[in-house]
Write a structure and sequence with these properties.
alpha/beta, D-Maltodextrin-Binding Protein, domain 2, 2 domains, nine-stranded mixed beta sheet, two-stranded antiparallel ribbon, 12 helices, disordered N terminus
Length: 333
């Protein structure tokens, strides 16, 4: 009898631990997938009409499109917001209530597994606006026997940022790589002050981290990221990749559109790379070394004539590219 009670208690303990782990994971996921305007007050500009906004079309260019099929990264929220304005005449308040992107990695998972997006979505995601897929996301798709059609719809620059007081204004591609492999550890090695470099990274499978690994480092091994301890809703502490902290010794990375349009901070400086800025002219010519894209991604088995395919194809037209530009992005070519 005593043995049976011990076994039963052990089972209960294991079950509780399992539930606790699951709940912690869910809390972390929820914390990371809130719309950006609910996470940080500095990024709520993304859901406001851009300066010089105008109605591009007298009527919706494509009829009867259900935008509940859309998902994507934080940095592409303005594309979805502009689609609602141009197709359905949504005002800014309505856009705030309706537009939701679950972030890059979750958007890929929703597309691959045909899961619904949004807070209370019931329609499977069919089209996502994201950065390129990570190696892990491609593997997940492969294991699910899913092939994806990844099509560029806008250009952007992958940029490195520091505090405006940092005297360094430009880094070479090689210097950036050596900072993140740990070969360069002090700002005085690149023309700055004598202070140790605090090189911040992003969490795995975020759009920025994937770009860093594939576009910048080209699979060169990176030093372990700066870590921090975060507190979950149940009071437990877990390790997490530290968020960028803007100070003179810091360096971090993001997308130019995000830092220039969505996250306003006058104390952050964008570093030139090889003396070149990430303006539209340099993006279109390819002169900026870390020129990249935002993509419209669908499954290759997406039916012909579906909302996802029609909308993706329309965004590649001249009218679609005008919408991309109105939302503040650089056209794809």
């Amino acid at each position: 009898m005593k043995k049976a009670i011990i076994i039963l208690c052990s089972i209960c303990i294991l079950a509780c631990v399992g539930m606790l782990t699951s709940n912690v994971t869910q809390l972390i996921k929820q914390a990371n997938t809130l719309p950006a305007d609910q996470v940080n007050a500095n990024v709520n500009v993304m859901l406001k009409r851009p300066s010089g906004w105008k109605k591009l079309y007298e009527q919706a260019p494509i009829k009867d499109i259900n935008f509940d099929i859309l998902d994507g990264s934080t940095a592409t929220i303005p594309i979805t917001a502009e689609l609602y304005r141009q197709f359905y005449d949504y005002d800014d308040e309505a856009v705030i209530q309706k537009v939701y992107h679950s972030t890059t990695h979750d958007a890929y998972l929703n597309l691959i597994h045909k899961q619904a997006g949004g807070y209370a979505g019931s329609i499977p995601v069919g089209l996502i606006f994201v950065t390129e897929p990570s190696a892990e996301e491609l593997q997940i798709a492969k294991e699910a026997n899913v092939s994806m059609d990844v099509t560029p719809i806008a250009k952007d620059g992958f940029v490195f940022i520091t505090h405006k007081s940092n005297p360094v204004n430009s880094l070479t591609v090689e210097q950036v790589q050596k900072i993140y492999t740990g070969e360069i550890t002090n700002w005085n090695q690149v023309g700055g002050k004598d202070q140790a470099i605090k090189a911040y990274q992003r969490e795995p499978n975020s759009g920025s981290q994937t770009a860093m690994e594939q576009l910048v480092m080209k699979d060169k091994p990176m030093t372990p990221p700066i870590k921090t301890m975060i507190k979950t809703g149940m009071g437990m502490l877990i390790d997490s990749v530290a968020e960028y902290k803007n100070e003179s010794a810091a360096i971090g990375y993001t997308y130019y559109y995000y830092i220039n349009n969505l996250y306003k901070n006058d104390n952050i400086k964008v570093l030139q790379i090889n003396g070149i800025t990430p303006g539209n002219k340099n993006l279109l010519s390819g002169a900026y070394p870390f020129t990249t894209n935002y993509y419209a991604v669908i499954r290759k088995d997406e039916p012909a004539g579906s909302d996802a395919r029609r909308l993706r194809d329309w965004l590649l037209t001249e009218d679609g590219q005008k919408l991309v530009e109105l939302a503040g992005y650089c056209r794809r070519k």
